[in-house]
């Protein structure tokens, strides 16, 4: 399984070059993604892995009933090492032209008046406080997703370290049939098909966990009726599929990795398949989760 943190620098660079060749991805967006990844990977390499035995995980019986190992709000994180990464990400965005740089200037003035703003954003992200981010989106109309992006991108290395620790104790061979991540309880943002059998895996929108999922089941409302589930793709993106559910009107994209030599991590596959989001929305379906980049 390929993740943002499992690739070496050369392999990651090759994958970013593949994204750069796609006409529908703006160069400014790829600059943000590439720069963010470099900062996140440096932060991740400096973290000590948490001890899975010391995490207050749910018991076997609760997990058998669908309880996550550790609810997202209970994931441990440390604001102290997170704050420098927040500042580095702001510097990255400020170096670019356009609305992100303007929004960062406004945000820096706000942070000078309230030094606790980053910590408040971290807490809001952990608690899934949509009201907090909606209020800031209104205050930063030139880049309404900025605060959410910064909070998610800053905490991603720490959340990845926790989910990696949980993965060492979980049986990855078992299919998880519930509509949320087995590690944290949040929904997936991207799926993948692996191996000759086309085993299906989902990637969590919060902690980045990858887990086995049912082959024919809506990941959000758990609908299994074949007449309610539909799949479509486009000739321009032969290795991607959109799976939609007529019951809840939600969709998830799947990357078919069965014949790909250098698979993209889910967070990059999501970007590579952006035209399918447009097609799904034109069909009247919604995506209930943001991308791995907070937008």
Automatic annotation (TrEMBL):
Alphabetized GO MF terms: ferric iron binding
GO biological process, one term: protein maturation
Superkingdom classification of source: Bacteria
InterPro entries: FdhE-like_sf, FdhE_C, Formate_DH_accessory
PANTHER family linked to this entry: PROTEIN FDHE
Domain FdhE C-terminal residues, every copy: 241-290
Protein name, as recorded: Formate dehydrogenase
Pfam families the record matches: FdhE_C
GO cellular component, one term: cytosol
The species this protein was found in: Desulfovibrio fairfieldensis
Keywords, ordered alphabetically: Cytoplasm
């Amino acid at each position: 399984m390929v993740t943002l943190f499992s690739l070496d620098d050369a392999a990651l660079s090759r994958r970013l070059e593949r994204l750069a060749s796609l006409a529908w991805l703006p160069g400014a967006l790829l600059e943000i993604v590439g720069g963010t990844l470099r900062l996140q990977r440096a932060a991740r390499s400096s973290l000590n892995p948490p001890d899975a035995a010391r995490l207050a995980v749910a018991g076997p019986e609760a997990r058998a009933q669908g309880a996550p190992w550790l609810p997202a709000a209970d994931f441990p994180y440390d604001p102290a090492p997170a704050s420098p990464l927040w500042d580095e990400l702001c510097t990255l965005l400020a170096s670019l032209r356009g609305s992100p740089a303007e929004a960062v200037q406004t945000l820096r003035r706000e942070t000078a008046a309230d030094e606790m703003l980053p910590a408040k954003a971290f807490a809001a992200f952990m608690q899934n406080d949509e009201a907090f981010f909606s209020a800031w989106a209104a205050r930063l109309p030139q880049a309404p997703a900025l605060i959410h992006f910064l909070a998610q991108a800053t905490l991603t290395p720490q959340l990845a370290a926790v989910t990696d620790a949980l993965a060492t104790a979980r049986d990855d061979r078992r299919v998880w049939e519930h509509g949320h991540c087995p590690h944290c309880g949040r929904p997936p943002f991207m799926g993948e098909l692996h191996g000759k059998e086309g085993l299906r895996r989902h990637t969590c929108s919060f902690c980045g966990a990858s887990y086995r999922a049912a082959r024919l089941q809506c990941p959000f409302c758990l609908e299994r009726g074949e007449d309610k589930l539909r799949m479509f793709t486009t000739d321009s993106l032969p290795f991607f599929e959109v799976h939609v559910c007529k019951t809840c009107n939600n969709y998830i994209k799947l990357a078919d990795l069965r014949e790909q030599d250098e698979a993209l991590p889910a967070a990059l596959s999501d970007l590579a398949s952006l035209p399918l989001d447009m097609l799904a929305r034109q069909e009247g379906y919604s995506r209930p989760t943001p991308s791995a980049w907070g937008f």
